[in-house]
Amino acid sequence: VSDPSLLALTLAEARDGLARKSFSARELTAAYNNAVSEIEPLNAYITPTPERALAMADATDHRLARGEALPLDGIPIAVKDLYCTKGVLTTAASHILDGFHPPYESTVTDKLWQSGAVMLGKANLDEFAMGSSNTTSWYGPVENPWRRPGDNRPLVPGGSSGGSAAAVAARAALAATGTDTGGSIRQPASFCGIVGLKPTYGRCSRWGVVAYASSLDHPGPLTRTVRDAAIMLRAMSGHDPKDSTSAPVPVPDFEAALTGDIRGLRIGIPKEYRVEGMPAEIEELWQRGIEWLRAAGAQPAEIGLPMTKYALPTYYIIAPAEASSNLARYDGVRFGLRVEGDTLGDLYELTRAAGFGAEVRRRVLIGTYVLSAGYYDAYYLKAQRVRTLIARDFVTAFEKVDCILTPTAPSAAFTIGEKTEDPIAMYLNDVFTVPANLAGVPAIAVPVGLSSDGLPLGLQIIGRAFDEETVLRVGEVVESAAQFRCSPSFAAGGGR
Amino acid sequence: MASVTAAGLTMREDEVTDGGRREEILSNAPRTARGFFVVPKVIE
Q1: Interval A417-440: pLDDT, tens
Q2: DSSP labels for A127-138?
Q3: What tens digit of pLDDT does each residue of A33-91 get?
Q4: A263 exposed, middle or buried (CB, 10 Å; 0-12, 13-18, 19+)?
């Protein structure tokens, strides 16, 4: 049985507890290994790695005994199974990567291990990170640890980092890595009642992270608090010569930015985010957020982001285009699944037909279409141009304001199976999160309240490129004003 | 726009920084022989 009091700690509290020797890294990791087993019904992990976790925890205890603690020493985390981990099965939740054991480690996970973090296992996700409900995984859907009171139907955790979000919310990881291409960190964080941070494009290296849409993919953390996100981000960030888009900029002490002082900060409220059909309770929560920031001395002001309505259509041209190119490498020859055929062409076709799920095939087809000779200018080139205008919207807005406050998602979590019949309804989940990916600017999702049917809802703070510090500082003010408590119906160590 | 990164690509010395990893590269292949990937015959 896992120790509920250990599992209830935040990352920052666990770090301090380890430093004070209130408990050992081995005790903390053993509790989390038990928690990982306990939440098995949620299907949040594809590959738990309990023995490796204990070995890493023992290394931490040796360092602590010598007084050589590292920044994340002994912190048990989940790794989205899109990050390559040396010698540990890496699947991208796809059948086509069957049996793939990378001979190298992704830069971000390598940095985390160099900082002393402990790997609990590889977390479930939508296949190749394509989805907003974690229902496209070859390894089956992930369940949200939350349920509507008086309603026993399982809910989606959001996606694509659904396993990461469910594990952190259900107290089976202190934090997790995720990736965010159109909202895949922030939307699941919102659905599970935790914090999700998409940093600036180039802040965290993409090297060794299975590529979906390279110009939109952002590695980042999912955590229980804003402070924990700041701690994780520092360990995950930094220039990497192996990723040509990695930014050669210094990494600030993000935790030190959490001063609580936002007096005089100008907060933009974009009028285009009042979308049709958005539930009134989300609008109300947004208003409450504006009042919290005003009460803390900030100055909210309405702004315009006129290109917002083009963000989703632009995203659903650029992302599939890049995906169709990136996924060309899965052909049954060098790694993963192989379905034999009489000719090499047959081998490619049979392998890809058997290895990719329906949503991945849909996006490869769309991407191939928009990149084909007759349609390239009409779709892909046009989308690239509109993307420039969307990014310019943010540059113009940040001349007048210091950050932007919006809802994270247009709804709370929905039941598993709902919306899967209609891909367009699923794509609408990302309406508030996609623009920050197209513009490459940092954004955090903070849980702030419950919907009328008792499910978490979040607010998003978007900031200037490489100004995660302001995003985190404002995020923490929203977090402390909201006093939200993550209390899902099912969690390791007895839940609530 | 192809990338939101304001900075252009950086240059580095034109030198070999990696290599000699044949075993690692082949380690995940479904079929190999004598240090090569094996596919159905393509010469007609």
Answers
A1: 887 777 777 788 899 999 999 999
A2: GGG--SSS---T
A3: 999 999 999 999 999 999 999 999 999 999 999 999 999 999 999 999 999 999 999 99
A4: exposed
Q: Going by C-beta distance under 8 Å and a sequence separation of 6 or more, which residues neighbour residue B23?
A: none
Burial A287-299 (b: 16+ CB within 10 A, else e): ebbbebbeebebe
How big is the A-B interface in CB pairs under 8 Å?
A: 68
| C-beta atoms of B39 and A440 within 8 A | no
Would the pLDDT of A494 be above 90?
no
Which value does ipTM take for this structure?
0.92
Catalytic residue numbers of A read: 80, 160, 184
Structure-block tokens of residue A229: 């996100």
Which three-class secondary structure string do you get for A398-425?
HHHCCEEEEECCCCCCCECCCCCCCHHH
Which value, to the nearest 10 degrees, does the dihedral of the CA atoms of residues A366, A367, A372, A377 take? Answer: 100
> B35 contacts in A (CB within 8 Å)?
none
Are A315 and A438 a contacting pair, CB within 8 Å? yes
CB A478 within 8 A of CB A446: yes
Which residues are A292's β-sheet partners? none
Supply the pLDDT for residue A1.
Answer: 40
Give the three-state DSSP class for A153: coil
Interchain contact, B24 vs A248, CB within 8 Å: no
> In sequence order, what DSSP letters do the residues of B16-27 get, joined into one string?
------HHHHHT
Contact A241 B6 (CB under 8 A): no
- The number of angstroms, rounded, from the C-alpha of A64 to the middle of its chain's C-alpha atoms is 31
Write the residue in B7, B21, B37 that is nearest to A334 by C-beta: B37
Using DSSP bridges, classify how beta strands A456-463 and A45-48 pair: parallel, antiparallel or unpaired: unpaired
pLDDT of residue B43: 79
- pLDDT band of residue B21 (cuts 50, 70, 90) is very high
**Nearest residue, CB atoms, A387 vs list B1, B24, B40:** B1
**CB spacing of A335 vs B3 below 8 angstroms:** no
Residue A439 in contact with partner chain B when CB distance is under 8 A = yes
Helix (H, G, I), strand (E, B), or coil: what is residue A456?
Answer: strand
The pTM assigned to this predicted structure is: 0.97
d(CA A486, CA A246): 34
Cβ contacts of A156 within 8 Å, gap of 6 or more = A133, A134, A135, A141, A142, A143, A144, A162, A191, A413, A414, A415, A416, A418
